[in-house]
Amino acid sequence: MSRPRVLSGIQPTADSFHLGNYLGALRQWVALQDSYDAFYCVVDLHAITVPQDPVVLRRRTRIAAAQLFGAGLDPDRCTVFVQSHVPEHAELAWVLSCLTGFGEASRMVQFKDKSAKTGADTASVGLFTYPILQAADIVLYQTDQVPVGEDQRQHLELTRDLAQRFNHRFGQTFVIPRPYILADVAKIADLQDPAIKMSKSASSPQGIVDVLEDPKSIRRKISRAVTDPGTEVRADEQAKPGITNLLRIYSALTGQTIADLEQRYADAGYGALKKDLADVVVDTFAPIRERTEKMLADETELDRLLARGAAHAREVAAQTMATVRDRVGFLRAV
């Protein structure tokens, strides 16, 4: 019996993934490759919805791919590739965009949020339509389930609507994807502002811990993380959001319950918690950083692995697009 298929992607928009990326996505991706037919891509087409330096984008794409392998994705157990290496993504996105209503696309919350920062007049059409490209990413591989958090649920609903619309108009073509809700995913907040999510676009450099960061820098950031009035180590979202965030990170990385951590540090204070948490983060990221650096030191091998992943992805994508072209009525090339 074939395994159900999952697909997810991550943008190459920084020189390192951060702690929130690791706990919110990468760690789950590694686990899913054992029980699913897993496809993971570095979504460089999505990255160019905002201005990019070509040299930097190319470098960051390799860094992102190397981190995926460094985090534990195995090319023998899953398919890892770069989105732009499979042209069918863009082709299918155009077909689906022709089935998407303008008002429907206008209701996507993330476009409103991102365009609000620079103004809708300067936002690209690509930023406006990227949820449709995201839909194409998913249905191109006849994906059964998509790992999602709450911030992506609306986009998955659009994907389901477009797949159903295509099937209704042209005949059964796409699998209708279902959300795969990642269990017990920690919501990691900014170390300097626990009211916001840890994010490259919103956080200050001191509020983010990067996977590839120097251990001394990691320890310094955690030691300077915002805490709360008093000295009691306990989880309380309202009264102690800073300590709650640190406890949540500690629990997520070690598997210890927050209740157990509260008891362990009941008489120890904030300093001891921060010191031990820094050790945990450094020890978690050290082997990932080492493997990533090794991958980046051999670009030929890294590119070979990405070409291998793209070749497999294109096999699946080509089958889907052949059906789509025929159903839509495109003349077959001879």
Short description:
With 334 residues, this protein is mainly alpha-helical. Helix content is 54%, strand content 7%.
Task: Describe the structure in your own words.
The chain is mostly helical and 334 residues long. It is 54% helix and 7% strand. The chain is built from 13 helices and five strands. It has helices spanning 19-32, 44-47, 54-71, 88-97, 102-106, 109-118, 125-139, 153-170, 215-223, 241-254, 258-264, 269-296, 299-328, and strands spanning 5-10, 37-42, 79-82, 145-148, 178-181. The strands form two sheets. The protein has a three-stranded parallel beta sheet. Helix 3 (54-71) packs across helix 12 (269-296) and helix 4 (88-97) packs across helix 7 (125-139). The longest helix has 30 residues, at 299-328. The protein is globular and about 75 Å long. The two termini are 36 Å apart. The model has no long low-confidence stretch (mean pLDDT 91).
Write the topology of this structure:
Layout: E1 5-10, H1 19-32, E2 37-42, H2 44-47, H3 54-71, E3 79-82, H4 88-97, H5 102-106, H6 109-118, H7 125-139, E4 145-148, H8 153-170, E5 178-181, H9 215-223, H10 241-254, H11 258-264, H12 269-296, H13 299-328
Parallel strand pairs: 1-2, 2-3, 4-5
The unreliable regions are: none
Q: Tell me what portion of residues adopts beta-strand conformation.
A: 5-15%
The count of β-strands is 5
What is the strand arrangement across the widest sheet? 1-2-3
Shape: globular
* Coarse structural class: mainly alpha
Distance between the termini: 36 Å
